[in-house]
Structure prediction request, 274 residues.
Amino acid sequence: MIGRIIKNISNDYTIESNEKNYLCKARGKFKQNKETPLVGDIVEFDENQKYILKIKARKNELIRPKIANIDVAVIVTSVKSPDFDTTLLDKNLTIISYNNITPIIYFTKLDLLDKSEKQNIQKYIDYYQKIGYNISTSVEDLTKKIANKTVVLTGQSGAGKSTLLNKIDKNLSLKTAEISQSLGRGKHTTRHTELFKIKNFYIADTPGFSKIDFINMSKIDIRDNMKEMFDNLCHCKYHDCLHINEDGCFIIELVKQNKILKSRYENYIKFISR
Ligand SMILES: Nc1nc2c(ncn2[C@@H]2O[C@H](COP(=O)(O)OP(=O)(O)O)[C@@H](O)[C@H]2O)c(=O)[nH]1
Ligand SMILES: [Mg+2]
Ligand SMILES: [Zn+2]
Prediction:
């Protein structure tokens, strides 16, 4: 039989096939081949022996969260408590794009901002939108954008991922957490990654990650997966420009003219210098 892994807790895999769920284990041979079945994998399995037999080739695979065959990643981004973190957002955007997954930025906790804070955040929202990222701030809008897709929610703990998912489907009743007062960030209430089939899409809640990294990504990969750093490359004097201090760099010119957000450029330099 063929199905899709929707949940994994240690060596127990829940596989969905034709609207039914099967609990299976992974055989030892996967370990020998250094292969691990992931949530999102399409697998062949033996429903009687309850074993996964074969993992189909993946379209893509994320490491944090551990998940495969994703179309869209919704980067749940809190603007307050935990505070807006441009570095984490830019890092997520870059890694997700590199993995050929469409990012959507979903801002939360805008209701906690006063008027001047709101104006400040709006500048960022407008900028990300202008350079071509997909932004969403309402559940209705997001639900339309993810129709027929396999979706993962990502973003730091306490950002509001489980809260958002509960709004998308009121029957889920996922646990959400109060923000720890002393840390100003969320506790990890979501402990494993699970795909939920809701309406016409699959969506995964995940534990939050504040530490993600550019595993296997070169400086060029980073440049080419930050929209404006790539889209304006054709205007730089050298086609291999890394926008650091090269002669005739168009990006540096745009930063001087405030046409590129300072935080974006600083994050870019931080990312390629690590
Ligand atoms: N004021 C406000 N609180 C929110 C919003 N979204 C989530 N929260 C709260 O933030 C806390 C953490 O949310 P949770 O969904 O558990 O975050 P997760 O760790 O990303 O899953 C909870 O107390 C939520 O009620 C929002 O848009 N506005
Ligand atoms: Mg959660
Ligand atoms: Zn340049």
